[in-house]
Amino acid sequence: MKKLLFINVILISLTAMAQPKVGEPSPEIVLKDVKGNPVSLSSLKGKVVLIDFWASWCGPCRKANKHLVNIYPSLKTKGFEIYSISIDDDISDWKKAVAADRITWLQVNEGGGWNAPVANLWKIDQIPTSYLLDKQGKIVARDLEGRQLEKAINQLLK
Amino acid sequence: MVVCMATGMQAQFTKATIQASGLTCAMCSKAIDNALKELSFVDAVKPDIKNSDFTVVFKQGQDADIDALKKAVEDAGFFVAKFTITGVFNNQAVKNDEHTGIGGKEYHFLNIKDQVLNGEKNLIIVDKNFLTPNAFKKYSAATAMQCIKTGKAGGCCEKAGLAAGTRIYHVTI
After folding, report:
1. ipTM of the assembly?
2. Which one of A61, A153, B163, B173 is separated from A119 by 20 to 30 angstroms, measured CA to CA?
3. What is the pTM of this model?
């Protein structure tokens, strides 16, 4: 009986450590938004979701924000949502960037920079890094940009 | 005239500002952040989007290794495009094209007016591979001493008590 218990513990820790992959269900993420309220990824089930890792000091991320700001409103009405995870260590830098880029989608931050727990679990080694999830919460693509991203979102929304 | 001289005035270097360049966005890479943070004397690394550089804050009272910082950037797959080191000085006299000992290390000031440094000052490192090749050309023309080519003391400085091969940091203000 003791032996069995031991095996169970190992399995659980392995599942928790494995990097999320395309084709697999996304693990749960719960982080705080700009107001400090926890927001869970699972609360978005039923929607097509883009998980977007970024930071205020990342030039290419800010450029990608501009594109997302343009496409977000019409896609949102069809059942699309963005769950942006900032790895900013400085919370005020993050809040300033959210306001400056006029971001209206879900924004969360956990602090701790590159080595924050969620960024570590997802093995984020450069930003921007994004994952597209279908309505069931399964990861279907990584790092899509521009037209390709729009096309994939529209297909998943059908 | 070439004068080599070493004085033992104390100064505390507090941080470095490093602009890294490469084929991709240097600040967007975890590798460079990790490499800098792994250095024992580094307290914090903060990217700055306005100037596209990193501010590397040193642990208080610790001796910062300028060459180790450059190596960390290069090992992460990038080049140093600009390297500024900030120190707090106390009556530190510096002269153009002369060697000055500060905090146990040798500095060779180029393209400056003779002056006395007090309070917080920024020194720009102008050794090879600490700036763009074009900028390096400009500074290497500013001295007749050979040390600018290698970053190390030549035979000329032995009279002044500087052993040949001693690391000399070339800087400007």
Report:
1. 0.77
2. A153
3. 0.81
Torsion of CA A73, A77, A79, A80, to 10 degrees: 0
CATH number of the domain to which B105 belongs: 3.30.70.100
Domains, chain A, in order of start with CATH, read 2-157 (3.40.30.10)
Residue A75 backbone phi and psi in degrees, to 5? -70, -30
Is the CB of B24 inside 8 Å of chain A's CB atoms? yes
**Strand-pair partners of B134:** none
A91 and chain B in contact, CB less than 8 A: no
All residues of chain B having their beta carbon less than 8 Å from the beta carbon of residue A89 are: 46
Q: How much is the pLDDT for B10?
A: 66
**Cα dist from B154 to B29, B58, B144, whole Å:** 38, 30, 12
B2 in any annotated domain? no
Give pLDDT tens digits for A16-39. 567 899 999 999 999 999 999 999
